[in-house]
From TrEMBL:
Organism: Shimia gijangensis
Name the UniProt record assigns to this protein: Geranylgeranyl reductase family
Classification via NCBIfam families: GG-red-SF
UniProt xrefs under PANTHER family: CONDITIONED MEDIUM FACTOR RECEPTOR 1, GERANYLGERANYL DIPHOSPHATE REDUCTASE
Taxon lineage: Bacteria, Pseudomonadati, Pseudomonadota, Alphaproteobacteria, Rhodobacterales
Domain FAD-binding: 264-316
Gene Ontology molecular function terms on file: FAD binding; oxidoreductase activity, acting on the CH-CH group of donors, NAD or NADP as acceptor
InterPro entries hit by this protein: FAD-bd (IPR002938), FAD/NAD-bd_sf (IPR036188), Geranylgeranyl_Rdtase_fam (IPR011777), Geranylgeranyl_reductase (IPR050407)
Annotated TM spans: none
SUPFAM superfamilies per UniProt: FAD/NAD(P)-binding domain
Pfam families: FAD_binding_3, FAD_oxidored
Amino acid sequence: MRMDQTNSPEFDIIVIGAGPAGSAAASRAARHGATVALVDKASFPRTKLCGGLFTERSHQTYCKVFDRQFDFSHAVTRREIEFWHDNKCLSSLPDVPPMHLTMRIDLDKRLFTHAIEDGAHDFSGKSIASLDGTDVTFRDGCTIRGRVLIGADGVNSITARALFGAPFDKSTIGFGLEVEVAPDEQIPTEQPLRVDFGAANWGYGWSFPKQGSTTVGVGGLLNSNPDMKGQFSTYLKAQGLDHDPRRFKGHYLPFGDFRVVPGRGAVLLAGDAAGLVDPITGEGIALAMESGHLAARAALDAINASAPETALDRYQVALKDMHRSLRIARGIRRIVFAPGWQQTFVGAFRRSGTLRTQYLQLLAGQVEYPELARNMLRRLPRLVVNRLGGHRF
């Protein structure tokens, strides 16, 4: 950290947002010798609305990005999952790749701590008043300056708002509702994970038993679900749960609508701020950590080349494979979630053990979307292939 002539601290990299993407970026950059300011309006630990599914893909990414082994003592690991549709069980799969259920209050605190331990400077609990390029001014009047800024500040990103005027496109954004089931109503942790196709239009429902809580939610495209609260109430009642809609917690969900240009010059966007969420599984933690890691690498390379303004160009090259997979996933989503096609998909899913297995392998990081798309198109009826209208995978 340096001081400029105005006595404002100067950093190589400023990271806004200390969730999985931001902590990953800060950890990577600090370990490689950069001076890093890690900024978040919250103080940790803090609550975060999220299903908290920490897949094997997330586990592998965590070990690579943070160079540590994951401590599962605060997680519930399940090896059984059920898929439902229209309140009927499509398939119950035992002995699947492990899926770890976490509380985000614990997970995010751990990742934030890693970043600070690795050398990032702690600017948590500080609200931002304004952004000017790579300079950040806080509400207390203090300004810090950076050579590169990484906005990892979630779906409502103030960084994206400063760059593009709005953090997301309301016509394509997803929306989710969740509730934490009270201990006296809790679904036993011995129960498998449950995913319900069609619990919301262009989306699904989930029930994740954890330690001391069960996270139950529904999510789908916002414009396709004008009565999401009603759909959520129906979903809860189908599971023998009855909750006051006023207790529901809602949040926007990037749902495959990623930013093709995730930043501008020396300002980069990572994680949810860049829309990097799987549009089929809804997984965002693994993509957040990976994108934070890639953003930090691009920032470091740009700074080492004495050309911070080239950070975005470097970052876009690094994101090429991730963007390609998300484009393919958006095509597959039309088969999985479109109301007119869902019965066809459900029938194929019920019959095909290969489709079910590869869905789980996707979560485990054992298969990627290009391969999944090829296999799916070979197994689904020709009618569906034709209706894709020549979509190229």
